[in-house]
Amino acid sequence: MDGVVVVFSAVLGLAIGSFLNVVIWRVPRKESVVRPPSHCPQCETPISPSDNVPVLSWLFLSGKCRHCKNPIPVRYPLVEAGCGVLFLAVAARFGASWELPAYLVLTAALLAISIIDLEHFIVPDRITAPLTVSALALLGVAAVAEGNGWRFGRTLLGGVAYFAFLLLLNILYPKGMGMGDVKLAFSLGLYLGWLGWGQVFLGGFLAFLLGAVVGVTLIATKVKSRKDVVPFGPFLALGAMLTILWGDPILRWYTGA
Ligand SMILES: [Zn+2]
Q: How remote is the CA of residue 172 from the centroid of ligand 1, in Å?
């Protein structure tokens, strides 16, 4: 059963990745993500279903639009393949379980948020708001299925704690921590809180550690100056994903258990 779920999730991830490419392009431009259907951003010709197969169509068309022959950025197949691999890893982590759908939704949202934040320096409400609603609904369903209300209580507290911590940083240092990051932290705290308090702390710790290491490296190599803004959303996302996938062994190692 778990094997079937893992394979199905990986294929689903490829298809969701294709949709994320639309989200990544249109959400920062305030366009609808459903209408019009996928079209070439250069010549606006609608993309036929047979040219919209994740990864394979891009390879088959040698990375060019069939009509105008303009290049289609390599980011498109990379997002599709990346989403497929991440869905596979998350499905392998949770197996056939009530919590799996919740974590797959999170994975897709974090992939889109990370790329949008790197490109446009925003963590859009149009993604974090539905992510928060679906986190509460899907983890709520999982808690009911498990008959574990106590666990859902810790989930809510995890969300409040991570949100409050980043809100404090936003008040102290508004240039370094945007409100988009603060709102995202509420969802991340829910997902990490579902797993445990150790995971909430580890998720935050890894985000700040990786953010600091990359920030210092970019300044030391003069890629960025001290005045440049480095988006923090991707680090929040990375800290949470690493904790979700490998937090248990890391915490066992740390506590020597
Ligand atoms: Zn075209």
A: 47
